[in-house]
Specification:
It contains 7 helices and 2 strands. It is mainly α and 193 residues long. Strand 1 and strand 2 (28-29) form a beta hairpin. 26% of the residues are buried.
Length: 193
């Protein structure tokens, strides 16, 4: 194993920072989702050193990067977004995104299993919870019919679960990066990692 695996896992972690966090000013998001896919694409060669099948995600990462970049830049020019204009395209992109992240987390769990069994279980559980949560959020719920305190309660629960998912994801990925770095250091005690 080389230090590039440590760097690649760190890139994936930073990608999820961009995916999960939004910092908008006057409707312009300074932490665009497409940056997640750029970080993942940058990480794939290093991850492939340990898990070759992760390279199969490259075309999907490019697709998601291009669609998210278009969604990010079109409103700047006063144009509607692709997803708003074509409902079926939005559904297809949602399914591709769900699959992409499910498979990426599966590959990261396989990598984690080589260094820390507890971390592997955490990544697999994270993958499952994230997939179920995002599937539930993608369903067409009659939210417009919910009013008053129930609306506030449901919104608070979604925010709490979302915030917990963000913390869990970042803790797990940065922890995995540390696990790999520690393993490399223990294998090469005289070398700098």
């Amino acid at each position: 194993m080389s230090n590039s695996l440590v760097v690649s896992v760190g890139r994936v972690a930073w990608g999820y920072v961009f995916l999960y966090l939004d910092f908008s000013l006057n409707g312009f998001n300074f932490l665009p989702d497409w940056a997640c896919y750029a970080f993942v694409l940058w990480a794939l060669p290093g991850l492939a050193l340990c898990e070759r099948s992760v390279k199969l995600l490259e075309p999907l990462a490019w697709l998601l990067l291009i669609v998210d970049a278009a969604e990010w830049v079109l409103p700047v020019f006063g144009l509607g977004t692709l997803i708003d204009e074509a409902y079926i395209l939005g559904v297809v992109i949602s399914v591709v995104s769900l699959y992409f992240h499910f498979q990426l987390l599966t590959n990261l769990a396989d990598i984690a299993g080589r260094f820390n069994a507890k971390r592997q279980k955490s990544v697999l559980l994270l993958r499952n919870v994230r997939t179920v949560l995002l599937t539930l959020l993608a369903l067409p719920w009659p939210i417009d019919r919910i009013e008053g305190s129930l609306d506030t309660f449901i919104g608070a629960i979604i925010m709490l679960v979302g915030f917990s998912l963000i913390i869990w994801t970042l803790y797990t990925f940065f922890g995995l990066r540390g696990d790999i770095a520690q393993w490399i250091e223990s294998e090469n005690p005289g070398d700098e990692a």
